[in-house]
User: Fold Acid sensing ion channel subunit 1 from Oreochromis aureus.
Amino acid sequence: MDLKVETEEMESNQPPPIEVFAHSSTLHGISHIFTYERFCVKRCLWLVFFLGSLTFLLYVCVDRIHFYLEYPHVTKLDEVTTPIMTFPAVTFCNLNAFRFSRVTRNDLYHAGELLALLNQRYEIRDMHLVEESVLESLKVKADFHNFKPRPFNMREFYDRTGHDISDMLLSCHFHGTECRAEDFKVVFTRYGKCYTFNAGGDGRPPLITTKGGMGNGLELMLDIQQDEYLPVWGETDETSFEAGVKVQIHSQDEPSFIDQLGFGVAPGFQTFVSCQEQRLIYLPPPWGDCKVTPMESDFFDTYSITACRIDCETRYLVDNCNCRMVHMPGDAPYCTPELYKECADPALDFLVERDNDFCVCETPCNMTRYSKELSFVKIPSKASAKYLAKKYNKSEQYIKENILVLDIFFEALNYETIEQKKAYEVAGLLGDIGGQMGLFIGASILTILEIFDYLYEVMKYKLCRCSDKKHKHNNNNDQGTVLSLDDVKCHPPHSLVCEQLRGLCSLQVFFLFPLLEQQRKCVNCA
Assistant:
């Protein structure tokens, strides 16, 4: 009697036929495929249409997923107006690294060959190319008879013989206010002794500007002192064929890299430099390739491409030459003039020009740079030449060959942002897939859950039916009943099957299906 009751209850829990589910499902098209009608052609056509739509859906979904895994990005440009702006740091170097009048006999003894003034026998090179006044002075300095050389240090040599800002600076104004030599910070670059205005640090905040346009920035009048230039009788990295200054405009957070990023300003001209600040924001991998990890350096706290380059070049020279150049940070010994010529200069030239593998510097995720527009006018005019000559106690020819004016200002009080943004995120991927599902098969996430719910009901019914057969088999076995092959196949223990069904019921509760009905079915199964 109990077995009969259980059988009746199981039949009442049997899931509806596929035709009933198809007519009640929100999945479009399957109600025309699974139907009680016997008209086969119509059902086949609907099956073809449904499978075709499903194929297109899968193709589009794969394409969208592939596009997402490419991690595309777009670049957004914007211009932001602001009432005040931080003025950039301005570094300049005289293209002549050493003043001839400051070179001593001891300097010439140690560095004469490096400067291409002496040959290997400590004799003056190419005397026929030397002007008479220079030759006389050079002969006195190159007389090493009974000379006892003293210790020589390249850092001290660069510092002592480099052009002095107090001699070069004829006039300085920032935002209409006069500035002095004390407002410039000494820095060493590959050009030797250089100077930075508005460097910040040392308790001095960066200067700001509240207006754009000419006259609201930095205006310098410089004397490049060509009469102090070393005579050039050969090509070395320490001598220059040019006359003028090299200038770099950069943020206070990055060191100067003027030999690679600077621009030249010639004497006899007033150079106007109109700047615009650009703030660049890059994406980290996998959308971009910017560096997100902190700066791993003993010399710099803030990561920048220039800091990375200087750090890398320093390590390269210390590893290959066991010394460093004057402009390089660290505590390694400075290279001697011999090492400069034989190792340091060739190694650094090779690293800069040819070796693209050793120094690989990633782009920082946030950086500031300054775009520039340059224009020029000639100085002095015929009307002002005599006045300037009298004012600075120089000849008119000297004024034309040595004086330059540099005017740096913001074009306007705004800055440009260049920002990389993710072009395709997870929300966009889900939206595209959901839209295509609705277009091709009229489905949604709930439709997928409907299908899983129906499959669960079918599986539960099959397992319960199989378990019931096993229960019948146990009763019949006590009465000596012969088992059929189908009864033998249904062998899982009755308790284990129902434990599995109880687990499936709990899983269905997790997906927000009716709890009480499912628990009732599982209890009946037990």
Remarks:
- The radius of gyration is 42 Å.
